[in-house]
Amino acid sequence: MTTPTRSGAHPRGDSHPRGSAHPRGGAPIWSAVTGVVAGMVLVAVAELASLAFSASSTPFVAVGGAFVDIVPPAVKDLVISLFGTWDKVVLFASMIAVYALLTALIGRLGDTRPRSAAALLAGLGVLAMVLVVTRAQNSVLDLLPTLVGTVVAVPTFLLLLRAVHAPAGADDADDSGARWTRRRSLLGVGAVGLLAVIGAGAARGVTASREVARRAAQFVLPTPRTTAEPIPENAQVDLEGMPPFVTPNADFYRIDTALAVPRVDPTTWELRIHGLVERELTLSFEELLAEPMIETNLTLTCVSNAVGGDLAGNAVWLGVPVRTLLERVGVKDGADMVLSRSVDGFTASTPLEALTDSRDSLIAVGMNGEPLPAEHGYPVRMVVPGLYGYVSATKWLTELKVTRFADDVAYWSTRGWSERGPIKIASRVDVPRSFGDLQPDADGAVMLGGTAWAQQRGIATVEVRIDDGDWREAELGAEVTPDTWVQWSLRWEEASPGDHSIMVRATDGEGEVQTEERANPAPDGSSGWHTVRCTVV
Ligand SMILES: Nc1nc2c(c(=O)[nH]1)N[C@H]1C(S)=C(S)[C@@H](COP(=O)(O)O)O[C@H]1N2
Ligand SMILES: [Mo]
Known about the structure:
Blueprint: H1 27-50, H2 59-70, H3 73-83, H4 87-112, H5 114-134, H6 144-165, H7 175-216, E1 270-275, E2 281-284, H8 285-290, E3 294-301, E4 312-321, H9 322-329, E5 337-342, E6 347-351, H10 352-356, E7 362-367, E8 370-371, E9 381-383, E10 397-403, E11 426-431, E12 436-438, E13 446-453, E14 459-466, E15 471-473, E16 475-476, E17 486-492, E18 498-508, E19 530-536
Parallel strand pairs: 1-10, 12-19
Antiparallel strand pairs: 1-2, 3-4, 4-7, 5-6, 5-10, 7-8, 7-9, 11-13, 13-17, 14-15, 14-18, 16-17, 18-19
Bound molecules: the ligand Nc1nc2c(c(=O)[nH]1)N[C@H]1C(S)=C(S)[C@@H](COP(=O)(O)O)O[C@H]1N2 and molybdenum atom.
């Protein structure tokens, strides 16, 4: 008696449509692959369907965005310190890995319990839909791409599972025929996977080219009423390896929680100013452009910047002083904070006085003579001298709520970061790079160089200490404003061959010496003296 029975030697056989008598050495792996391919179909179809919606309507972007929102500050800090601005690549790669693992497990389950497996796959789709619609910039309609993806992926999954397990035909004895049919099924699975990859790639490509087209249609910047201080030539230390004094837009560091850069249409954009004000104000983009604008040099820095890190950039910003708009709406007594909000739901809490005192806090539309790049907040963002970006530099700005610290909490403040973020004094060695070589000149001297900043107070002196020597005062490049970084250089005369350490500290315009005390970025910015090790060759 060789007829398989339900309780017999083939316990897994009952859910296979037929052919439990088939040896299927590869089936477990192939069912896992089937799960992964079905998962790819879900994402690819959703990506393609999202072309009719917004970039943020794809499940991947929504799931990643939700993940970014719940990750604890310590982890965010670690990821940024390990990967810098590659953080998003790392996030997407880990998401892909987790997703591949989950769908592979679902595929494996499909081997014995196809219905439950299909339900789980659908469950993943539903979970993604929930996350899509709860993203701030999305509406209910944005769940449609994921819905379509799920509706296509689930039956595809069941079909592929059946194909992978299908016997040759009625005649089980025809072994070569069985192998041939099997090979065809596996090829089919591969082909569907390939199609999914091509579809997703094409969708991404279209999104990217739309971005290019949109940029081409950007507006012409208005002329400022007062132009920025001209940058003297000697602001830039003339030494190979020094960063440019003005950071080109394309090289400007980018830090934000947005996985898909929000695409804001300036023709429908509005800025609403409300809260503790005498009269609310809503400005269209055209109205904003008609406001008197000023230009200002300002170095932006991120609270996540580690000692010696490069999450800082210096640009010329063009915009409307926040002060003038706040004067127009009339701030009521009791207000001490302005909560700025982005189209993607990010918020920052800026102390009211930083927006009403004499500093150049701007509602900015221009960066280094160009409209804001999409990554840096197009069409409108805020910049505030003296405060870290997370409490002031809201990109894709759409709302200012005049309020009180007691009543409202900003995005990062609910995640363990300090609700106020004045920038700490910072200085770093740029030349040499860490573990770099230094080549002495004919006189046996080497040039050292770096950058220092203390926005609002300015940098008074920078000192450098080589090995255990005395502090030596560095030469400073021209200071453009107290809100911009300065570059420093030091000629080290008697550089002796061998390994050395180079340490730097700055003193701000108020006489405060940068503290040696090491602090991590969380909760309110790193501190400590930057030291690099190098070799004089
Ligand atoms: N909408 C939005 N704006 C944002 C952020 C964000 O996550 N979302 N991040 C802030 C932080 S933490 C910093 S340091 C600056 C960085 O600005 P940049 O990317 O133009 O350098 O933007 C700020 N504005
Ligand atoms: Mo930041």
